[in-house]
Amino acid sequence: MTKVPAITATFWVIKVLSTTIGETFADYLAVNVGLGPAVTDAVMIAALVVALVIQFRTRAYTPWIYWLCVVLVSIVGTQLTDLFTDTLGVSLYVSTAVFAVVLAVVFAVWYRQERTLAITSIDTPRREAFYWGAILTTFALGTAAGDLATEALSLGFRNGVLIFGGLIAATWVAYRLGAGQVLTFWIAYVLTRPLGASLGDLLTQDKDFGGLGLGASVTSLLFFGTILVLVIREQVLVSRHGVAVKGAGPLGGYRQDYLWAGAAVVAVAMAGWVLRPAADTTPTAEPAPVTTAQAGAEPGAPAALPRQAHPTTKLGNLGKFAVIVTDVKEKVAHNDLAGGKSRAKDLEVAWDDAEAGLKPRDSARWHQLDDQIDAVLTALRAPSPVRGDCASALDTLLATLSQFDGVS
């Protein structure tokens, strides 16, 4: 019996939404919970192994198990790309090319062994192993290609939604005009990864960074609720009719499937509109004035009149980060290292939340600040933090923020 779902409209909706859920959940564990990238990676890989063991042990397609695996594969695939890019410093051009070659090799070996790449033929353990290997690689490739477009090419997540959505639409048109079903499926599967990530960034990022300002928590809950409803429906249909036949009842049938998919998209859009922050319906306030103290002056220096930041980079006004860093610096200056460590958590969360909006503007300078923030966090979170090391890292970061904000 086949181990994968029928490819219908709701399949693609769940796939796109699960991409966003996977990415935001991993960031939540790493930053908000404080597990860090290494522990989060280990936890997610372990969870994926357990989920895949359950998936392989089932005798037929079970929606909740299958989609749990997809979400976890989304997380691990993203982490693979981040390992290449952020940890090893591999260019996005190189990582995109590498994952494309790996995917081609997986397909070549799969076809040589099974003489088919059709997902409707996933009915043996070996074919299922090839399938999940390909799925993992498509997520890594989709992440690298999406980051290449939105970050390295500075297209941003708004353009990402339009570009990747348009490419998926073009792939569907090609399929309707006679292009191969297997080819168009895998092309669309790769493209849904960057589409889901761009859509998630559009919803979660602050209005100042070009997003709608829903935040990661609200967006994740909204998407999770939609996925839950669609997966429950899928589970009911599979239990009644099997995976291949959707059935003609009030829940089933391909026509009903289009209606459910459309209703899910409309529900997400309407909920996002209702839940959007009040700030999105009012004029954006002018940035707060930046004082000499916020610009990094030594404690006790003569007070200066508030000065407006005049950003010198495409990153824009970074004043809100400078305010947090100044607070941390004051705590460290009074030897309150525990308080500084706690306040630095706010900096980490704020910086991570703004990544998708800031990084495409100026990737080089974003990485410069990111490295300096990591240095501050490392110094404060050391087993026995040294006040001088913490102060030095904070001075360097605050000087860079002041330089980028045009505040002297």
From TrEMBL:
It holds the Pfam family DUF347. Residues 281-309 are annotated as: Disordered. The chain crosses the membrane at residues 28-52, 64-84, 90-110, 130-149, 212-232, 258-275. Residues 281-304 have a biased composition (Low complexity). Keywords: Membrane, Transmembrane, Transmembrane helix. This is Membrane-anchored protein. It comes from Micromonospora mangrovi.
